[in-house]
Design a protein that fits this description.
Layout (H helix, E strand, L loop, with lengths): L5 H10 L20 H20 L12 H14 L12 H16 L7 E5 L2 H20 L5 E5 L4 H10 L2 E5 L9 H7 L4 E7 L11 H10 L3 E6 L6 H6 L16 E4 L12 E5 L2 H5 L3 E6 L2 E5 L8 H38 L4 E3 L7 E6 L8 H10 L5 E3 L4 E5 L9 H18 L17 H19 L13
Parallel strand pairs: 2-3, 2-4, 4-5, 5-6
Antiparallel strand pairs: 1-7, 6-7, 8-9, 10-11, 11-13, 12-13
Helix pairs in contact: 3-11, 4-11, 5-6, 11-13, 12-13
Bound molecules: pyridoxal-5'-phosphate.
The site of pyridoxal-5'-phosphate has 12 residues, from helix 5.
Length: 480
Protein backbone atom coordinates (compact mmCIF):
# COMPACT_ATOMS: atom_id res chain seq x y z
CA UNK A 1 0.00 0.00 0.00
CA UNK A 2 2.59 2.45 -1.20
CA UNK A 3 2.68 5.95 0.29
CA UNK A 4 -0.43 5.66 2.47
CA UNK A 5 0.32 6.14 6.17
CA UNK A 6 -1.83 4.71 8.98
CA UNK A 7 -2.71 8.31 9.93
CA UNK A 8 -3.96 9.03 6.42
CA UNK A 9 -6.13 5.92 6.47
CA UNK A 10 -7.47 6.80 9.93
CA UNK A 11 -8.20 10.38 8.84
CA UNK A 12 -10.19 9.07 5.89
CA UNK A 13 -12.16 6.72 8.11
CA UNK A 14 -12.81 9.46 10.70
CA UNK A 15 -14.38 11.59 7.98
CA UNK A 16 -17.22 9.08 7.75
CA UNK A 17 -18.29 9.78 11.32
CA UNK A 18 -17.87 13.48 12.13
CA UNK A 19 -20.78 13.45 14.61
CA UNK A 20 -19.54 10.82 17.01
CA UNK A 21 -18.72 13.34 19.73
CA UNK A 22 -21.72 15.53 19.07
CA UNK A 23 -24.77 13.29 19.01
CA UNK A 24 -25.77 10.04 20.65
CA UNK A 25 -24.91 7.06 18.45
CA UNK A 26 -27.99 4.81 18.67
CA UNK A 27 -27.18 1.13 18.73
CA UNK A 28 -30.55 0.00 20.02
CA UNK A 29 -34.06 1.24 19.31
CA UNK A 30 -34.91 3.70 22.13
CA UNK A 31 -37.14 2.12 24.79
CA UNK A 32 -39.64 4.97 24.48
CA UNK A 33 -40.20 6.85 21.24
CA UNK A 34 -38.36 10.17 21.19
CA UNK A 35 -40.29 13.45 20.79
CA UNK A 36 -40.69 14.40 17.12
CA UNK A 37 -39.27 17.87 17.85
CA UNK A 38 -36.01 16.38 19.16
CA UNK A 39 -35.59 14.26 16.06
CA UNK A 40 -36.59 17.09 13.73
CA UNK A 41 -34.11 19.36 15.42
CA UNK A 42 -31.23 16.96 14.71
CA UNK A 43 -32.36 16.43 11.13
CA UNK A 44 -32.84 20.13 10.40
CA UNK A 45 -29.51 21.08 11.93
CA UNK A 46 -27.59 18.44 10.00
CA UNK A 47 -29.38 19.17 6.72
CA UNK A 48 -28.77 22.92 6.99
CA UNK A 49 -25.08 22.41 7.78
CA UNK A 50 -24.53 19.77 5.11
CA UNK A 51 -26.35 21.71 2.38
CA UNK A 52 -24.03 24.67 2.82
CA UNK A 53 -21.29 23.24 0.59
CA UNK A 54 -23.65 22.38 -2.25
CA UNK A 55 -25.47 25.68 -1.99
CA UNK A 56 -22.15 27.50 -2.42
CA UNK A 57 -22.32 26.39 -6.06
CA UNK A 58 -18.74 25.14 -5.95
CA UNK A 59 -19.58 21.45 -6.18
CA UNK A 60 -19.36 19.44 -9.40
CA UNK A 61 -22.39 17.21 -10.17
CA UNK A 62 -24.17 15.66 -7.15
CA UNK A 63 -26.74 18.46 -6.73
CA UNK A 64 -28.44 19.21 -10.00
CA UNK A 65 -31.17 21.69 -9.12
CA UNK A 66 -30.20 23.68 -6.03
CA UNK A 67 -33.61 25.39 -5.77
CA UNK A 68 -34.93 24.95 -2.23
CA UNK A 69 -38.41 26.25 -3.08
CA UNK A 70 -38.75 23.55 -5.70
CA UNK A 71 -37.33 20.93 -3.30
CA UNK A 72 -40.00 21.99 -0.84
CA UNK A 73 -42.72 21.66 -3.49
CA UNK A 74 -41.45 18.22 -4.55
CA UNK A 75 -41.34 17.13 -0.91
CA UNK A 76 -44.97 18.23 -0.57
CA UNK A 77 -45.94 16.07 -3.54
CA UNK A 78 -43.83 13.23 -2.14
CA UNK A 79 -45.62 13.50 1.19
CA UNK A 80 -49.00 12.84 -0.40
CA UNK A 81 -47.96 9.34 -1.52
CA UNK A 82 -44.82 8.64 0.54
CA UNK A 83 -46.56 5.85 2.44
CA UNK A 84 -48.22 4.31 -0.64
CA UNK A 85 -46.87 1.03 -2.00
CA UNK A 86 -47.23 1.10 -5.75
CA UNK A 87 -47.08 -2.68 -5.91
CA UNK A 88 -50.72 -2.41 -4.85
CA UNK A 89 -52.00 -0.68 -7.98
CA UNK A 90 -55.62 -1.44 -7.14
CA UNK A 91 -55.27 0.93 -4.19
CA UNK A 92 -53.08 3.49 -5.95
CA UNK A 93 -53.91 3.65 -9.66
CA UNK A 94 -52.52 7.20 -9.68
CA UNK A 95 -49.06 5.59 -9.74
CA UNK A 96 -49.93 3.96 -13.06
CA UNK A 97 -50.84 7.36 -14.48
CA UNK A 98 -47.72 9.07 -13.09
CA UNK A 99 -45.27 6.36 -14.10
CA UNK A 100 -46.71 5.89 -17.59
CA UNK A 101 -46.60 9.61 -18.23
CA UNK A 102 -43.00 9.96 -16.96
CA UNK A 103 -41.95 7.20 -19.37
CA UNK A 104 -43.93 8.74 -22.25
CA UNK A 105 -42.47 12.22 -21.68
CA UNK A 106 -38.93 10.81 -21.52
CA UNK A 107 -39.50 8.71 -24.63
CA UNK A 108 -40.73 11.75 -26.53
CA UNK A 109 -37.65 13.74 -25.45
CA UNK A 110 -35.53 10.86 -26.84
CA UNK A 111 -37.43 10.87 -30.14
CA UNK A 112 -39.06 7.52 -29.53
CA UNK A 113 -42.13 6.48 -31.48
CA UNK A 114 -45.34 4.69 -30.59
CA UNK A 115 -43.43 1.45 -30.08
CA UNK A 116 -41.08 2.95 -27.46
CA UNK A 117 -41.70 1.72 -23.92
CA UNK A 118 -39.93 2.00 -20.59
CA UNK A 119 -39.88 1.60 -16.85
CA UNK A 120 -39.13 3.89 -13.94
CA UNK A 121 -36.25 2.63 -11.79
CA UNK A 122 -34.54 3.62 -8.56
CA UNK A 123 -31.58 5.32 -10.25
CA UNK A 124 -28.93 5.13 -12.91
CA UNK A 125 -27.44 1.90 -11.64
CA UNK A 126 -30.76 0.06 -11.89
CA UNK A 127 -31.37 1.64 -15.30
CA UNK A 128 -28.14 -0.01 -16.45
CA UNK A 129 -28.64 -3.32 -14.66
CA UNK A 130 -32.04 -3.91 -16.23
CA UNK A 131 -30.91 -3.64 -19.87
CA UNK A 132 -27.89 -5.86 -19.19
CA UNK A 133 -30.30 -8.49 -17.83
CA UNK A 134 -32.55 -7.94 -20.85
CA UNK A 135 -29.75 -8.53 -23.35
CA UNK A 136 -28.53 -11.61 -21.48
CA UNK A 137 -32.05 -13.04 -21.47
CA UNK A 138 -32.64 -12.12 -25.10
CA UNK A 139 -29.37 -13.81 -26.09
CA UNK A 140 -30.38 -16.93 -24.22
CA UNK A 141 -33.95 -17.05 -25.57
CA UNK A 142 -33.37 -16.04 -29.16
CA UNK A 143 -29.81 -17.22 -29.87
CA UNK A 144 -29.13 -19.88 -27.23
CA UNK A 145 -26.18 -17.91 -25.89
CA UNK A 146 -25.08 -19.39 -22.56
CA UNK A 147 -21.84 -17.43 -22.06
CA UNK A 148 -22.96 -13.87 -22.84
CA UNK A 149 -20.54 -11.02 -23.48
CA UNK A 150 -21.06 -7.25 -23.49
CA UNK A 151 -18.63 -4.72 -24.96
CA UNK A 152 -18.48 -1.30 -23.34
CA UNK A 153 -16.20 1.73 -23.71
CA UNK A 154 -13.61 1.88 -20.95
CA UNK A 155 -15.21 5.17 -19.91
CA UNK A 156 -18.69 3.66 -19.48
CA UNK A 157 -20.12 3.80 -15.99
CA UNK A 158 -18.93 1.17 -13.56
CA UNK A 159 -22.55 0.19 -12.81
CA UNK A 160 -22.42 -1.86 -16.02
CA UNK A 161 -19.44 -3.70 -14.58
CA UNK A 162 -21.56 -4.31 -11.50
CA UNK A 163 -24.45 -5.58 -13.63
CA UNK A 164 -22.16 -8.00 -15.45
CA UNK A 165 -20.78 -9.13 -12.10
CA UNK A 166 -24.28 -9.78 -10.76
CA UNK A 167 -25.59 -11.45 -13.90
CA UNK A 168 -22.61 -13.57 -14.93
CA UNK A 169 -21.93 -11.65 -18.14
CA UNK A 170 -18.39 -11.39 -19.48
CA UNK A 171 -17.45 -7.72 -19.76
CA UNK A 172 -15.06 -6.48 -22.42
CA UNK A 173 -13.77 -2.94 -21.95
CA UNK A 174 -12.90 -1.30 -25.24
CA UNK A 175 -10.05 1.20 -25.05
CA UNK A 176 -10.58 4.85 -25.87
CA UNK A 177 -8.92 6.76 -28.67
CA UNK A 178 -6.97 9.98 -28.11
CA UNK A 179 -10.35 11.76 -28.38
CA UNK A 180 -11.54 9.90 -25.24
CA UNK A 181 -14.23 8.13 -27.30
CA UNK A 182 -14.56 4.40 -27.77
CA UNK A 183 -12.20 2.75 -30.27
CA UNK A 184 -14.66 1.40 -32.86
CA UNK A 185 -12.13 -0.89 -34.52
CA UNK A 186 -11.49 -2.60 -31.20
CA UNK A 187 -15.22 -3.07 -30.67
CA UNK A 188 -15.65 -4.49 -34.20
CA UNK A 189 -12.73 -6.89 -33.71
CA UNK A 190 -14.07 -8.22 -30.39
CA UNK A 191 -17.65 -9.05 -31.38
CA UNK A 192 -18.08 -12.82 -31.13
CA UNK A 193 -21.05 -15.19 -31.45
CA UNK A 194 -21.46 -14.74 -27.66
CA UNK A 195 -21.80 -10.96 -27.79
CA UNK A 196 -25.27 -9.88 -26.72
CA UNK A 197 -24.93 -6.10 -26.54
CA UNK A 198 -22.77 -3.04 -27.05
CA UNK A 199 -22.86 0.08 -24.91
CA UNK A 200 -22.09 3.73 -25.60
CA UNK A 201 -22.39 6.74 -23.30
CA UNK A 202 -24.15 10.07 -23.79
CA UNK A 203 -22.20 11.53 -22.02
CA UNK A 204 -19.66 9.50 -20.19
CA UNK A 205 -19.20 9.99 -16.46
CA UNK A 206 -15.47 10.83 -16.53
CA UNK A 207 -15.46 13.05 -19.65
CA UNK A 208 -19.07 14.04 -20.40
CA UNK A 209 -18.55 13.07 -24.05
CA UNK A 210 -20.89 11.25 -26.42
CA UNK A 211 -19.50 8.06 -27.96
CA UNK A 212 -20.01 7.48 -31.72
CA UNK A 213 -23.46 6.03 -31.18
CA UNK A 214 -24.38 5.98 -34.90
CA UNK A 215 -21.37 3.79 -35.71
CA UNK A 216 -21.99 1.56 -32.68
CA UNK A 217 -25.60 1.27 -33.84
CA UNK A 218 -24.53 0.19 -37.30
CA UNK A 219 -22.32 -2.52 -35.75
CA UNK A 220 -25.12 -3.61 -33.46
CA UNK A 221 -27.61 -3.80 -36.33
CA UNK A 222 -25.15 -5.72 -38.53
CA UNK A 223 -24.69 -8.39 -35.82
CA UNK A 224 -28.24 -8.28 -34.40
CA UNK A 225 -27.03 -7.03 -31.00
CA UNK A 226 -28.57 -4.74 -28.44
CA UNK A 227 -27.13 -1.24 -28.19
CA UNK A 228 -27.68 0.44 -24.87
CA UNK A 229 -27.03 4.18 -24.70
CA UNK A 230 -26.18 5.26 -21.18
CA UNK A 231 -27.79 8.67 -20.99
CA UNK A 232 -28.09 8.48 -17.20
CA UNK A 233 -25.98 11.61 -16.89
CA UNK A 234 -26.55 13.45 -20.15
CA UNK A 235 -30.03 12.21 -21.01
CA UNK A 236 -31.92 15.13 -19.51
CA UNK A 237 -29.48 17.88 -20.54
CA UNK A 238 -28.07 17.00 -23.99
CA UNK A 239 -31.46 17.08 -25.79
CA UNK A 240 -31.99 20.64 -24.57
CA UNK A 241 -28.43 21.72 -25.41
CA UNK A 242 -29.09 20.38 -28.91
CA UNK A 243 -32.40 22.24 -29.09
CA UNK A 244 -30.49 25.43 -28.25
CA UNK A 245 -28.48 24.90 -31.44
CA UNK A 246 -25.18 23.75 -29.94
CA UNK A 247 -23.39 20.78 -31.51
CA UNK A 248 -24.41 17.52 -29.81
CA UNK A 249 -23.58 14.22 -31.52
CA UNK A 250 -26.73 12.15 -32.20
CA UNK A 251 -27.42 9.47 -29.62
CA UNK A 252 -31.15 8.78 -29.27
CA UNK A 253 -33.85 6.70 -30.96
CA UNK A 254 -33.39 8.66 -34.19
CA UNK A 255 -30.45 6.30 -34.72
CA UNK A 256 -31.86 2.97 -35.89
CA UNK A 257 -29.34 0.75 -34.06
CA UNK A 258 -30.18 2.14 -30.61
CA UNK A 259 -32.31 -0.40 -28.74
CA UNK A 260 -32.39 1.08 -25.22
CA UNK A 261 -31.56 4.34 -23.44
CA UNK A 262 -31.27 5.20 -19.76
CA UNK A 263 -31.88 8.77 -18.53
CA UNK A 264 -31.85 9.81 -14.89
CA UNK A 265 -34.72 11.95 -13.71
CA UNK A 266 -32.83 12.40 -10.44
CA UNK A 267 -29.93 14.15 -12.17
CA UNK A 268 -30.65 16.77 -14.87
CA UNK A 269 -34.36 15.82 -14.73
CA UNK A 270 -34.37 17.86 -11.49
CA UNK A 271 -36.47 15.32 -9.56
CA UNK A 272 -35.80 14.01 -6.07
CA UNK A 273 -33.10 11.38 -5.59
CA UNK A 274 -34.13 7.81 -6.30
CA UNK A 275 -35.55 7.72 -9.82
CA UNK A 276 -34.42 7.14 -13.39
CA UNK A 277 -36.00 5.94 -16.62
CA UNK A 278 -34.93 3.07 -18.85
CA UNK A 279 -36.46 3.06 -22.32
CA UNK A 280 -36.63 0.20 -24.83
CA UNK A 281 -37.26 0.43 -28.55
CA UNK A 282 -40.16 -2.02 -28.27
CA UNK A 283 -42.22 -3.94 -25.75
CA UNK A 284 -40.67 -7.29 -26.67
CA UNK A 285 -37.33 -6.15 -25.22
CA UNK A 286 -38.91 -4.80 -22.05
CA UNK A 287 -40.58 -8.16 -21.44
CA UNK A 288 -37.16 -9.67 -20.73
CA UNK A 289 -36.82 -7.56 -17.59
CA UNK A 290 -40.20 -8.52 -16.13
CA UNK A 291 -40.43 -11.15 -13.45
CA UNK A 292 -43.64 -13.12 -13.06
CA UNK A 293 -44.33 -16.04 -10.75
CA UNK A 294 -47.69 -17.75 -11.24
CA UNK A 295 -47.30 -20.50 -8.63
CA UNK A 296 -46.08 -18.82 -5.44
CA UNK A 297 -48.12 -19.67 -2.32
CA UNK A 298 -48.22 -15.92 -1.61
CA UNK A 299 -50.30 -15.33 -4.71
CA UNK A 300 -49.77 -14.31 -8.31
CA UNK A 301 -46.70 -12.09 -8.45
CA UNK A 302 -45.35 -9.86 -11.18
CA UNK A 303 -42.95 -6.92 -11.03
CA UNK A 304 -41.43 -4.87 -13.84
CA UNK A 305 -37.91 -4.58 -12.44
CA UNK A 306 -35.67 -5.29 -9.49
CA UNK A 307 -37.63 -3.55 -6.77
CA UNK A 308 -40.54 -5.11 -4.98
CA UNK A 309 -42.47 -2.54 -2.96
CA UNK A 310 -41.86 1.02 -4.12
CA UNK A 311 -42.96 4.35 -2.67
CA UNK A 312 -45.65 6.18 -4.61
CA UNK A 313 -44.16 9.41 -3.29
CA UNK A 314 -41.08 9.31 -5.49
CA UNK A 315 -43.11 8.51 -8.59
CA UNK A 316 -45.51 11.38 -7.95
CA UNK A 317 -42.66 13.80 -7.20
CA UNK A 318 -40.81 12.81 -10.39
CA UNK A 319 -43.95 13.38 -12.44
CA UNK A 320 -44.39 16.74 -10.72
CA UNK A 321 -40.76 17.69 -11.44
CA UNK A 322 -41.18 17.12 -15.18
CA UNK A 323 -44.48 18.98 -15.31
CA UNK A 324 -43.41 22.01 -13.30
CA UNK A 325 -40.00 22.37 -14.99
CA UNK A 326 -41.49 22.17 -18.47
CA UNK A 327 -39.58 22.44 -21.74
CA UNK A 328 -38.79 26.08 -21.10
CA UNK A 329 -37.37 25.29 -17.67
CA UNK A 330 -35.11 22.59 -19.13
CA UNK A 331 -34.03 24.90 -21.96
CA UNK A 332 -33.22 27.77 -19.60
CA UNK A 333 -31.24 25.49 -17.31
CA UNK A 334 -29.38 23.94 -20.27
CA UNK A 335 -28.51 27.40 -21.64
CA UNK A 336 -27.02 28.49 -18.32
CA UNK A 337 -25.20 25.18 -17.84
CA UNK A 338 -23.71 25.23 -21.35
CA UNK A 339 -22.59 28.83 -20.93
CA UNK A 340 -20.94 28.16 -17.56
CA UNK A 341 -19.29 24.98 -18.85
CA UNK A 342 -17.75 26.88 -21.77
CA UNK A 343 -16.36 29.48 -19.36
CA UNK A 344 -14.87 26.70 -17.23
CA UNK A 345 -13.40 25.21 -20.39
CA UNK A 346 -11.88 28.58 -21.33
CA UNK A 347 -10.40 28.85 -17.83
CA UNK A 348 -8.69 25.48 -18.25
CA UNK A 349 -7.50 26.30 -21.76
CA UNK A 350 -5.97 29.53 -20.46
CA UNK A 351 -3.51 27.40 -18.44
CA UNK A 352 -0.70 26.05 -20.66
CA UNK A 353 0.06 23.45 -17.96
CA UNK A 354 -3.40 21.91 -18.39
CA UNK A 355 -5.38 20.35 -21.20
CA UNK A 356 -9.07 19.67 -21.71
CA UNK A 357 -9.95 16.03 -22.37
CA UNK A 358 -11.88 15.51 -25.60
CA UNK A 359 -13.26 17.81 -28.29
CA UNK A 360 -16.42 19.85 -27.87
CA UNK A 361 -17.46 18.99 -24.31
CA UNK A 362 -20.84 20.56 -23.64
CA UNK A 363 -21.82 20.38 -19.97
CA UNK A 364 -18.92 18.58 -18.28
CA UNK A 365 -15.30 19.71 -18.55
CA UNK A 366 -12.62 17.12 -17.82
CA UNK A 367 -8.98 18.07 -17.71
CA UNK A 368 -5.53 16.98 -16.68
CA UNK A 369 -1.89 17.95 -17.00
CA UNK A 370 -0.74 18.99 -20.45
CA UNK A 371 1.80 16.68 -22.05
CA UNK A 372 5.39 17.70 -21.43
CA UNK A 373 8.59 16.74 -19.66
CA UNK A 374 7.49 18.09 -16.32
CA UNK A 375 3.68 17.78 -16.04
CA UNK A 376 1.95 19.36 -13.05
CA UNK A 377 0.39 17.04 -10.50
CA UNK A 378 -3.31 17.56 -11.18
CA UNK A 379 -4.18 16.41 -7.68
CA UNK A 380 -1.95 19.14 -6.24
CA UNK A 381 -4.01 21.58 -8.31
CA UNK A 382 -7.07 19.95 -6.77
CA UNK A 383 -5.64 20.36 -3.24
CA UNK A 384 -5.59 24.10 -3.78
CA UNK A 385 -9.07 24.14 -5.33
CA UNK A 386 -10.38 22.13 -2.37
CA UNK A 387 -8.82 24.64 0.03
CA UNK A 388 -10.91 27.30 -1.75
CA UNK A 389 -14.12 25.31 -1.27
CA UNK A 390 -14.30 23.62 -4.69
CA UNK A 391 -15.32 19.99 -4.92
CA UNK A 392 -14.40 18.57 -8.29
CA UNK A 393 -14.55 14.89 -9.24
CA UNK A 394 -11.28 13.01 -9.68
CA UNK A 395 -10.64 10.91 -12.80
CA UNK A 396 -7.90 8.33 -13.08
CA UNK A 397 -6.06 6.44 -15.80
CA UNK A 398 -5.22 9.12 -16.88
CA UNK A 399 -5.22 11.30 -13.77
CA UNK A 400 -7.56 14.24 -14.10
CA UNK A 401 -10.43 16.19 -12.68
CA UNK A 402 -13.87 16.85 -13.99
CA UNK A 403 -16.37 19.59 -13.42
CA UNK A 404 -19.90 18.46 -14.26
CA UNK A 405 -21.76 21.75 -14.39
CA UNK A 406 -25.19 21.81 -12.78
CA UNK A 407 -27.69 24.59 -12.01
CA UNK A 408 -26.08 25.65 -8.70
CA UNK A 409 -22.82 26.28 -10.61
CA UNK A 410 -24.44 28.78 -12.96
CA UNK A 411 -24.63 31.69 -10.56
CA UNK A 412 -23.05 34.89 -11.91
CA UNK A 413 -19.34 35.27 -11.26
CA UNK A 414 -18.74 31.66 -10.28
CA UNK A 415 -16.85 30.68 -13.46
CA UNK A 416 -14.61 33.74 -13.08
CA UNK A 417 -13.89 32.79 -9.46
CA UNK A 418 -13.03 29.30 -10.66
CA UNK A 419 -10.66 30.72 -13.30
CA UNK A 420 -8.75 32.68 -10.63
CA UNK A 421 -8.57 29.74 -8.22
CA UNK A 422 -7.51 27.38 -10.99
CA UNK A 423 -4.64 29.69 -12.00
CA UNK A 424 -3.55 29.85 -8.35
CA UNK A 425 -3.92 26.07 -8.16
CA UNK A 426 -1.51 25.56 -11.04
CA UNK A 427 0.97 27.94 -9.35
CA UNK A 428 0.52 25.98 -6.10
CA UNK A 429 1.18 22.66 -7.86
CA UNK A 430 4.33 24.03 -9.47
CA UNK A 431 5.56 25.45 -6.16
CA UNK A 432 5.01 22.08 -4.43
CA UNK A 433 6.22 19.83 -7.24
CA UNK A 434 7.40 16.46 -5.94
CA UNK A 435 5.36 16.64 -2.73
CA UNK A 436 2.50 14.12 -2.40
CA UNK A 437 -0.90 15.69 -3.03
CA UNK A 438 -3.38 14.84 -0.29
CA UNK A 439 -6.40 14.68 -2.60
CA UNK A 440 -4.56 12.18 -4.75
CA UNK A 441 -3.46 9.88 -1.92
CA UNK A 442 -5.33 6.90 -3.32
CA UNK A 443 -4.94 7.78 -6.97
CA UNK A 444 -2.06 6.46 -8.95
CA UNK A 445 -2.36 3.09 -7.25
CA UNK A 446 -4.83 1.57 -9.70
CA UNK A 447 -3.83 0.02 -12.99
CA UNK A 448 -1.62 -2.83 -11.81
CA UNK A 449 -2.90 -6.12 -10.34
CA UNK A 450 -1.18 -5.44 -7.00
CA UNK A 451 -2.39 -1.84 -6.89
CA UNK A 452 -5.94 -2.85 -7.79
CA UNK A 453 -5.98 -5.60 -5.16
CA UNK A 454 -4.70 -3.17 -2.51
CA UNK A 455 -7.26 -0.55 -3.46
CA UNK A 456 -10.15 -3.04 -3.48
CA UNK A 457 -9.12 -4.12 0.01
CA UNK A 458 -9.03 -0.51 1.19
CA UNK A 459 -12.35 0.41 -0.43
CA UNK A 460 -14.09 -2.57 1.13
CA UNK A 461 -12.52 -1.65 4.47
CA UNK A 462 -13.94 1.84 4.06
CA UNK A 463 -17.43 0.38 3.57
CA UNK A 464 -17.01 -1.73 6.71
CA UNK A 465 -16.00 1.42 8.55
CA UNK A 466 -19.11 3.26 7.37
CA UNK A 467 -21.34 0.68 9.01
CA UNK A 468 -19.37 0.52 12.25
CA UNK A 469 -21.09 3.02 14.58
CA UNK A 470 -18.10 4.25 16.58
CA UNK A 471 -17.97 5.06 20.29
CA UNK A 472 -17.45 8.74 21.18
CA UNK A 473 -13.88 9.64 22.09
CA UNK A 474 -15.00 11.58 25.21
CA UNK A 475 -18.08 11.60 27.49
CA UNK A 476 -21.25 10.49 25.68
CA UNK A 477 -23.07 13.41 24.05
CA UNK A 478 -26.78 14.09 24.56
CA UNK A 479 -29.51 14.52 21.99
CA UNK A 480 -31.52 17.72 21.64
C1 LIG B 1 -23.02 8.07 -17.11
C2 LIG B 1 -23.59 7.54 -15.81
N1 LIG B 1 -24.23 6.36 -15.81
C3 LIG B 1 -24.72 5.81 -14.68
C4 LIG B 1 -24.58 6.45 -13.48
C5 LIG B 1 -25.09 5.79 -12.23
O1 LIG B 1 -26.14 6.51 -11.69
P1 LIG B 1 -26.64 6.33 -10.18
O2 LIG B 1 -25.54 6.86 -9.32
O3 LIG B 1 -27.89 7.13 -10.15
O4 LIG B 1 -26.89 4.89 -9.92
C6 LIG B 1 -23.94 7.70 -13.44
C7 LIG B 1 -23.75 8.41 -12.17
O5 LIG B 1 -23.13 9.44 -12.08
C8 LIG B 1 -23.42 8.25 -14.64
O6 LIG B 1 -22.77 9.42 -14.65
Amino acid sequence: MADLTAEQVQAMLDRFYPYKDRYVAHRTIPAEGMPRETVLDVVRTLAAEEDRLGDSGKVSSSLYLGDHDQYHFLAEVFEAFAHANVLQRDMYPSATKFEGEIVAMTASMMHGDDRTVGVLTSGGTESLMNPMLVYRERGRAEKRITAPEVIIPNSAHVAIDKACHYFGIRLLRAPLGSDFLVDLDWVRDHITPNTVALVGSAGSYPYGLVDPIGELGALAAEHDLGLHVDGCLGGFVLPWIERLGHPVPPFDFRLPGVTSISADTHKFGYALKGTSVVLYRDAALRRYQYFASPDWPGGLYVSPGMSGSRSGGLIAATWAALLTTGEQGYLDAAAAIYDTAQRIRAAVEAQPALRVYGDDPTFLIAFGAADGDDPVDIFAVNDHLASRGWRLNPDQLPAGLHFCVTRPNTRPGLAEEFARDLADGVAHAKAHAGEPASSGALYGMAGTPAGNAGLSFLLSGALDAMYAVPAPSGPPPTEG
